[in-house]
Amino acid sequence: MRTEIATLGEFGLIDRLTEGIKPENESTRYGVGDDAAVLSYPSEKQILVTTDLLMEGVHFDLTYVPLKHLGYKSAVVNFSDIYAMNGTPRQITVSLALSKRFSVEDMEELYSGIRLACQQYHVDIIGGDTSSSLTGLAISITCIGDADKDKVVYRNGAKETDLICVSGDLGAAYMGLQLLEREKTVLKGEKDIQPDFTGKEYLLERQLKPEARKDIIEKLAAANIVPTSMMDISDGLSSELMHICKQSNAGCRVYEEHIPIDYQTAVMAEEFNMNLTTCAMNGGEDYELLFTVPIADHEKVSQMEGIRLIGHITKPELGCALITRDGQEFELKAQGWNPLKEDK
Amino acid sequence: MRTEIATLGEFGLIDRLTEGIKPENESTRYGVGDDAAVLSYPSEKQILVTTDLLMEGVHFDLTYVPLKHLGYKSAVVNFSDIYAMNGTPRQITVSLALSKRFSVEDMEELYSGIRLACQQYHVDIIGGDTSSSLTGLAISITCIGDADKDKVVYRNGAKETDLICVSGDLGAAYMGLQLLEREKTVLKGEKDIQPDFTGKEYLLERQLKPEARKDIIEKLAAANIVPTSMMDISDGLSSELMHICKQSNAGCRVYEEHIPIDYQTAVMAEEFNMNLTTCAMNGGEDYELLFTVPIADHEKVSQMEGIRLIGHITKPELGCALITRDGQEFELKAQGWNPLKEDK
Questions:
Q1: CA distance, residue B227 to nearest chain A CA (Å)
Q2: Are A134 and B133 a contacting pair at CB < 8 A?
């Protein structure tokens, strides 16, 4: 079934997509339906704001990304930025621009993914904008969250001797992308062949349906740990470490042997004949948390499940380096995904 | 001079565009440079959030819109939504996606318009996202503002016998667009001819460099008037009146003879052989304020410069109608700009 969006118009489409949305958060006073949404936060909270603009053909490829997954991921990557400030996401606005190629049902699919993410993370959809584009789909999401005034964590607070920690494992989302890209090339034009992804489910899930590390933020709070600096890993560990070090006026040493990597990632890297550490350091889209804690928290963090100590902060003069398994030092370079750099 | 964006990369471009930005508002605690911006509002304020996504070829045509004007307008239309809630805009995030056609200098032009608007209205740029697109330019702006808790004005509070007021004049922005579209057609391919817009400056200004009605919000506050309902006129007076009436469960009568129209708009409509009232009722992009006040405020509002009483709110059964100069009643129809409706 295909209903043309033109038959509903902008307001009809918005009504249909936002039907039955009920705010869950006390801070949401008025959502969709006026010139602006209305929020109310107690004064002991700081308010966090982050935004993302995703363009078809640059940030996602609809030949292998289902619209529902795309919606889910678009929302979750914004939640991840709020958690990375040690906050809790509360509201999002969703703006879509779509070409005539898309039907009302397509938009419902996309929106169902966004709504599912919002349900899972208890975030309210409070507004947005729906419009047309000449080509492709554009998705712009702004997320608003809150944090206790003295608990906001920036990128600029890392201090010499602080421990560098990372949640989960790295490189899997990137390997998932390689896998999908390969299947796309292999299967081009042969529509009936279903690619076999057995044993690679984790990689696909990491690429297509990432989660934001709400659980880690909760664990840190429960253990009374406030990181000295934190950010989420969207462009690759190398790039993010360099941001933290630059903004904290510090250097760092991270150890190859401590970089957390899943088994499937390792298998896939071998199959693709790629350097595993490079994938983990520069892969991007992991949406794991990278943070630093004072050395006094060593015992606490080393006991926390799902968190790995990968190195430590140094004086700025020492620069940022990776220590390989055989003890060599390599200066970190931000080779992560950069949408505005020259094509390779 | 043309610097390719690829030579700077995402972070280089952001650094260049946001250089020297200093927050003006106390509520802005941390702007560009982390996973999220950090704001802090006192608890007696409600927080307002609005967002817009503008796509090249749909919302703007760079053959006649200078990038600086585009930036200015993109910001101002968001401020307008915050004023329309009886609030004050305080922060914006700016997301841009651009194709290789654009240079660093182009983006500086665009950004200089956004920054100028922010200066004029005392709004802080607190973040955003900069990325590439396969074709064209996409601009997504989210604006955050505040209002006293008991002063937020929604669309749904209009009551029977309330007076309907409008600021400024209507239809000029639409006539400006017609004028630019005509010149574009006439001059296609003839680059050296400069169109003569003498005597039509107001129309062009209304289209290319609209302002948000901060002054009206201030006047209303000074006169101790809190409208019962309000919105800004972006899609045309007819369409907006119908929103207010639908959401307030009311009807309305507006009088053709009271619709405020500028002399240049009238001259242009005649030149184009268009119905002037239709242009004023459905033209869109005026960014004037449409609001209702209790009849007890009649004297106060009728003395306010720049505000016109155009009609009154009725019981819902009476529907929404325009009363023409010769006393006929016409049911209002939303013929305003609707980017998702079928092409004409």
A1: 15
A2: no
Domain assignment present for B158: no
Q: Tell if the CB–CB gap between B339 and A132 is shorter than 8 Å.
A: yes
Question: Are the beta carbons of A35 and B81 separated by less than 8 Å?
Answer: yes
Residue B168 burial by CB count (10 A; 0-12/13-18/19+): exposed, middle or buried? Answer: buried
Residue B145 and residue B171 in one domain: no
Task: Say yes or no: A96 contacts chain B, CB-CB below 8 A.
Answer: yes
Q: Which of A285-289, B50-54, B186-190 has the lowest mean pLDDT?
A: B186-190
**Has residue A45 been placed in a domain?**
yes
Domain count, chain B: 2
**Which residue range is the domain that position B110 belongs to?**
5-150
Q: Which of B135, B140, B338 sits opposite A9 (nearest CB)?
A: B338
Chain B CB contacts of A144 under 8 Å are 49
Cβ of residue A342 closer than 8 Å to a chain B Cβ: yes
ipTM over the 0.90 cut-off: yes
Instruction: Count the alpha carbons within 13 Å of A100 in the hemisphere toward its beta carbon.
Output: 8
From residue B284, how far is each of A12, A293, A297, B151, B234 by CA, in Å?
19, 54, 59, 27, 5
How far is it, in rounded angstroms, from Cα B165 to Cα B163?
Answer: 6
Are A95 and A184 members of one domain? no
- pLDDT of res. A186: 80
Distance from B327 to chain A by nearest Cα, in Å? 32
CATH of the domain at B38: 3.30.1330.10
Q: Is A123 on the interface with B (CB under 8 A)?
A: no
Using CB atoms, which residue from B47, B51, B341 is nearest to A9? B341
Report d(CA A335, CA A238) in Å as an integer: 7
DSSP B132-160: E-SSSEEEEEEEEEEEEGGG---SS---T
Could you tell me if A262 and A314 are in contact, meaning their C-beta atoms sit under 8 angstroms apart?
no
User: Is residue A235 annotated as involved in ligand binding?
Assistant: yes
Are B142 and B167 in the same domain? no
With an 8 Å Cβ cutoff, are A152 and B6 in contact?
Answer: no
pLDDT per residue over B34-89, tens digit each? 999 999 999 999 999 999 999 999 999 999 999 999 999 999 999 999 999 999 99
Residues 133-192 of A with CB under 8 A from B: 133-136, 138, 140, 142-145, 149, 152, 154-156
Read off the CATH number of the domain in which B292 is found: 3.90.650.10
SS3 A15: helix
Q: Tell me the per-residue pLDDT of A248-258, one tens digit each, with 9 for 90 and over.
A: 999 999 999 99
List, for residues A31-87, the tens digit of each pLDDT value. 998 999 999 999 999 999 999 999 999 999 999 999 999 999 999 999 999 999 999
| Other C-beta atoms lying within 10 Å of the C-beta of residue A311 | 23
Residue B289 predicted with pLDDT over 90: yes
Same domain, A112 and A227: no
